[in-house]
């Protein structure tokens, strides 16, 4: 069972529940994702409770073919979040540690944080900087080395309870960050720097989130120029540890999304360009497709 936000041609943005490949409108129960997250507090079995709240209402529409862009005037999925900030964890996979050490000319700081008790956690995006399925992500206009970072994203309610999972793309300017680690906010936080979607799979609907395969495909002119995959089993941090550090001395009245780091890093000669396309797939959640534009 999954949550989604979708555009209805007559009613605008709506909240839905996806069951058996069909969308059931639930806006009358939870007008926003923020409202759903508040409702979810303290609930032990979300799938059962959501099904009971929906009752026997008829489905609105099929989820649709996620492999092709929707018509803008048709019913289509939006980013699954509304008022939630996005935060991110870094250096949670060995491949990320190696790549960030190389780009920073062997500074040693990423080696140290990889093994430290305290994880790297940083602010990623305000809601206005987040895009959804088939919306364009951006590469910075002042950067020449840009990559997508495919990540499992945790959707967390106001009481720091994990309620579900979605796909995240943590766009990154590797040359800016590599020049000086203090430039991390500029390498990470800008307009269209993050994509989420296509849906939120409820935590009870995934048997083992520490055994999910992630796959990244970068296409140029319709031809793949990079394909990589990894399992979340390679992550060195636990979800509980990351959430606990995120919540230290912090409040999230609308809930929050936490990206859990990437283990897929394209080779140094691969850099995103305008008109490329990025697809991230995670089993149990779906595929997130985004074209690429240059910022400015």
CATH second-level architecture of the largest domain: Alpha-Beta Complex
Total domain modules: 2
The assigned structural class equals alpha+beta
Briefly, what CATH class of the largest domain? Alpha Beta
Count up the helices. Answer: 7
Extract low-pLDDT stretches.
none
> What summary fits the major beta sheet?
12 strands, mixed
Shape: globular
Mean pLDDT: 93
For this structure, the CATH topology of the largest domain is Fumarylacetoacetate hydrolase, domain 2
**What is the percent of helical residues?**
10-25%
Radius of gyration: 18 Å
- Beta-strand portion reads 35-45%
| Separation of the first and last Cα atoms | 39 Å
The total of beta strands comes to 19
Question: What this model shows, in words?
Answer:
With 296 residues, this protein is an alpha+beta fold. It folds into two domains: 2-77; 85-294, Fumarylacetoacetase-like, C-terminal domain (Fumarylacetoacetate hydrolase, domain 2, Alpha-Beta Complex), CATH 3.90.850. It is built from seven helices and 19 strands. The protein has helices at 33-39, 46-54, 94-103, 109-115, 174-179, 184-188, 239-247; strands at 2-8, 12-19, 22-25, 61-62, 76-77, 85-90, 120-125, 130-131, 137-139, 146-147, 150-156, 162-170, 172-173, 194-202, 213-220, 223-231, 256-259, 276-282, 286-294. The strands form three sheets. Strands 1, 2, 3, 4, 5, 6, 7, 8, 11, 12, 14 and 17 form a twelve-stranded mixed beta sheet that branches. A hairpin with a 2-residue loop joins strand 15 and strand 16 (223-231). Helix 3 (94-103) packs antiparallel against helix 4 (109-115). It is globular.
């Amino acid at each position: 069972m999954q949550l989604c936000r979708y555009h209805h041609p007559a009613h605008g943005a709506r909240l839905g529940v996806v069951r058996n490949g069909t969308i059931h409108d639930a806006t009358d129960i939870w007008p926003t994702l923020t409202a759903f997250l508040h409702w979810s507090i303290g609930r032990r079995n979300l799938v059962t409770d959501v099904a009971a709240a929906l009752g026997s209402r008829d489905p609105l529409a099929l989820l649709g073919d996620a492999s092709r862009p929707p018509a803008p005037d048709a019913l289509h999925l939006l980013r699954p979040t509304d008022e939630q900030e996005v935060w991110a964890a870094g250096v949670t996979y060995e491949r990320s540690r190696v790549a960030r050490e190389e780009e920073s000319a062997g500074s040693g700081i990423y080696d140290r944080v990889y093994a430290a008790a305290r994880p790297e956690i940083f602010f990623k995006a305000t809601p206005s900087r987040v895009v959804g399925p088939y919306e364009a992500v951006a590469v910075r206009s002042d950067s020449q080395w840009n990559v997508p970072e495919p990540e499992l994203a945790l959707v967390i309610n106001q009481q720091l309870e994990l309620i579900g999972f979605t796909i995240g793309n943590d766009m990154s300017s590797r040359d800016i960050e590599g020049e000086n680690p203090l430039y991390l906010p500029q390498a990470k936080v800008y307009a269209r720097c993050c994509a989420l979607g296509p849906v939120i799979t409820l935590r009870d609907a995934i048997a083992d989130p520490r055994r999910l395969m992630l796959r990244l495909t970068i296409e140029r002119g319709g031809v793949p120029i990079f394909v990589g995959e990894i399992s979340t089993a390679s992550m060195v941090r636990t979800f509980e540890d990351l959430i606990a550090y995120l919540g230290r001395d912090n409040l999230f009245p609308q809930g929050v999304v936490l990206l859990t780091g990437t283990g897929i890093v394209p080779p140094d000669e691969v850099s995103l360009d305008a008109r490329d396309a990025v697809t991230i797939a995670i089993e149990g959640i779906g595929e997130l497709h985004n074209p690429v534009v240059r910022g400015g």
